[in-house]
Amino acid sequence: MKTILVVGGAGYIGSHMVKMLLKAGHQVVVLDNLSNGYRDAVLGGDFVFGDLSDRQCLDYLFNGYQFDGVMHFASFIMVGESVQNPAKYYQNNLTNTLNLLDTMVAHEVKNFIFSSTAAIFGEPRYTPINEEHPKNPINPYGLSKLMIEQILQNYDKAYGLKSICLRYFNAAGADPEGELGERHMPETHLIPLVLQAASGRRTHINIFGQDYDTPDGTCVRDYIHVNDLCQAHLLALDKLFDEKTSSAYNLGNGEGFSVQEVIDVAKDVTNIDIPVVIGEKREGDPARLVADAKLAREELNWQPEYTDLNTIIQHAWQWEKDFFN
Description:
Layout: E1 3-7, H1 12-23, E2 27-32, E3 46-49, H2 55-64, E4 69-72, H3 79-84, H4 86-106, E5 111-117, H5 140-159, E6 162-168, E7 170-172, H6 190-199, E8 205-208, E9 220-221, E10 223-225, H7 226-243, E11 247-251, E12 257-258, H8 259-270, E13 276-279, E14 288-289, H9 294-299, H10 309-324
Helix pairs in contact: 1-7, 2-4, 4-5, 6-8, 6-10, 8-10
């Protein structure tokens, strides 16, 4: 049994991670300021209300526990907002993460799992996107994540802090047991937005552009079930403990689903005709974003369980119905 600090453990992915860590037999401590998370989403372990900007809080926490590893999910993630308010993103995603890393170094905690993003790659030069793809983020959100990845390389060489960076494409779905799900405020992710339109919480779903170079003209994205995502984190943590080497992996299904496919499958799952409004293309939306997760499968022995879009949407729909209606 290890003692793991989960920063941002009250959020969407973090809360699923906490549940999985507890099931695996670890002691879990959650640090969250509840700006984007919910206290009732933390299903066990110790909860500490606090912020990464508070170095005194971090020192108190690291003095109180002997952490074996740290998982970091407490970044801001809205691309558009990062363009409009880059200071907010650099303060939280960069400066506050540095506070956490410096506290880890001071307390000799050497294992760090970082929630990174496909946004570090920018406009794709080819798909599927592997780890060697050029990294040229086109927004402050992606840049803030890439900066941390680069800083982690420096901290490894200088201080021996070992890390694994996991670059997500599109996290989706909900806890198969129905205890947890996605509830961002505001919601920006496609699958929950489509299901909100199905449940009546939203009048319609927008499709931004129908003339992309894809089979049906709508954007193609790689959706990965949140439980499969967390399983990759658990395997990455084990790898850090066993091998004590830093690395980075892309995480995705390896195949994409178009916006229209998501809507069509949601209609089948819900048996509801979902109203659609066609809009103009959005600037900066690539036609296709799909991960090459071969390296994670090989080196982490990661085997995603819920790769079927129907299953992903079924789990999300169960959460939408049970929690919001």
